[in-house]
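Dear Dr. H.,

I hope your travels went smoothly. While you were away I took the liberty of generating a structure for the chain from your last submission, since the lab meeting agenda had it listed for discussion. I wanted you to have the full record in hand beforehand rather than looking at slides cold. The sequence, exactly as received, is reproduced here:
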Amino acid sequence: MNLLLDLFLSFAKIGLFTFGGGYAMIALIENTCVEKNQWITHDEMMNIAVIAESTPGPIAINCATFVGYKQKGFAGALAATVGMILPSFCIIFAISRFLDHFLEIAWIAHAFQGIKIAVGILILDAAVKMLQKMQKKPMPIAFMICASVAMLLINIFSIRISSIVLMLTAGLISLFIFMVKKPAGKEGAGK
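The corresponding predicted structure, in token form, is as follows:
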């Protein structure tokens, strides 16, 4: 029961104090789940981020569900997911219920200007941590560079391509390379 409460409270704190959506939450999820509580390893966190991005639903909720399930099965997944969702739901409900023109309040509009900058920094922090801990092999580095260049060109030329298409393309290329290398590896093992 203690672990369920820890899962709920940990993800509720992340959900309550993180603005900017799932990408901004990745750094906090990693800090809480990998470094503080050691519920998952860094490699598992990287895998979760990739899988959570490519499955339906918000990335932070998918991460919370996976971590909770890994720790305590269905009950853990439920506790972590509700913890992640509940604070945001309550805040948005209160805003929609009581403040019709929430962003028209000057001090709130100015606060959100600063929050936008903080969100960018959180996303950059998560990306840098993943890059630092990424395997330093030619294939992952090549995929990272190609995907970064592709996303940059897509943004510069305002081409409408989903990041999911890029991930699926990278996955298919990786699978193709694996299939091509696999027979060569078996021949070398027999000699």
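Two observations you may find useful: The chain has a mean pLDDT of 81. Residues 59-98 form the longest helix (40 residues).

With kind regards,
E. W.
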